[in-house]
Amino acid sequence: MFSGFMLNAWIIASIVAVVAGVVGFFVVLRGNAFEAHALPLGSFPGAAAASLLGINSFIGLVVFAALGVLGINRLGRRGKQGVATALSLVFLLGLGALFFSFTNEYAPAIYSFLFGEVLGTSTSQILLVAFLGAVAIMTTAILYRPLMLDSLSPDLVEVSGIRSSHMEILFLLVLALATVMSLPVVGALLVFSLMVGPPAAARSFTNRPLVAILLAVAFALLTVWIALALSYLSDWPVGFFVGSLGALFYGLGRGWMSWRPFKRSTHLLQRSASAQ
Amino acid sequence: MKTLLTFIFEPGFFSSQPVLTALFVSGVAAIVSAVVGIFTVIRGQAFAGHSLADVSSAGGSASYLLGVNPLLGFLGMAILGAGGMELVGVERARGRDLATGVVFGAGLGLAALFLYLDVTTTSTSGTTIAVLFGSMFAIPSRTEFLVVIIGSATLIILIALYRPLLLSSINPEIAAVQGIRVRLVGLVQMLVLGSAVALSAISVGAILSTALLIGPAATALRLAKRPNLAIWLAALIGLGAAWLGILLAYDSADWIPGHNLPVSFLIVMLVFLTYVIASLISGRGRGIASAKIATPIRSGRS
Hints:
heterodimer; A: about 280 residues; mainly alpha; about 85% helix; globular; B: about 300 residues
């Protein structure tokens, strides 16, 4: 279970889980769940476009993720964010339908881009993912204070001289980065499961942001480790286990919240939830 | 005149059974989705709508395993997902996005499993594409019958509950004061959303069905000043995009030798273009989308 190609899978899935836990905390805090889903899913046709043109699929992913950020941002200025995100997403996916129609060879590739190909990772891929993951986490660390402030009170952040709209686009870019690095490994749909399930669960257990981030990372790691092990034993797709475990963790968090003896509803994070 | 007609409608367009089926199914799907979409957009439930579509793909892929009509698979899973989201998100409306996300994640996991089993057990590698991106010209026989039942049931519910639905979408507090059971209406709205999504999923594919749900409705809400007008306009835009898309796809065989442009791609692009043009000409301050009455209930940062 821990030899050869499986070892690569363990390492790369762990890196992705750490990044998903950190970035996912802000996804949940800011209410960007839809964007966290739309960016990965909208980027995957980029890989198909790249292979049609015969260029590195990584470039295709970057271009499509950037298009996604641009679309959400531009359309969002004129209308509701949810509508903007939905329309940007279907635009990119519509292009995907066009690319896939040019050849039948994509059927297995589509599946692995959507649900992940964690077992087929090479050592050079690990380096790339580790580098991009480090960039994503460092950016989040640098932006930590303004991001927190902006998530809790957009008005307050304007007072301190930072444009709330700038924070939004910066965060979307971090999200795009995390997307591009993890998409070839865990697939478009699972990036999202990892970014929402574990951090949402973590928030039920604690109100302190840093503890919540660490807890989110721990849950995300547990999720991918258990999922990998079960997938190895059962031969079923990793994605099935990641999705189910994410929901399970969230259920545990909700259970804990309703069970615990005292209410902490006035705490910081709870208030931020009501501010959304 | 005749040559112009044959230029627009390539020979055989109206005599081909798959084309007629596609026109009918996508027409019903577009109208139902556009009408449901109006309420969805006003409520700010674009994310829930898209999630249900993706979750329904688990049902679509399971139907290939069980050998039942894919529409029933899409519908079953969409209804289950809708119920799940209402159930998990009960306590507070603001937790709804999160509840949506978690149900969504679990549904995607199921989709992964069923598609995997499809590919490994039935050796039809096209299933993934058919479920996700649609197979408009290969809709199974007897689907029309189901489409008629589901479509008309959805529209009847919408007409019967028009006022409570609209009022509790625009302002839940006033609706509650007037004695409308907002929670129950919310549940009905989610179920109606589920069936609209299932109808669209069978025509343009699960992950593209959001285009028919959100696109025409958002466009209409930009242009029209009154909700009833927006509903008619949305239905018209949806129907127009769906039928024009099918026509262009049929004709496109002549443009690129040996290659038909995919219907789903054309419909999505038409919907998207209409929205962009409408938002350019309407600018700010026109249509009920920008009017005060329709500001999102969860007054979030947007």
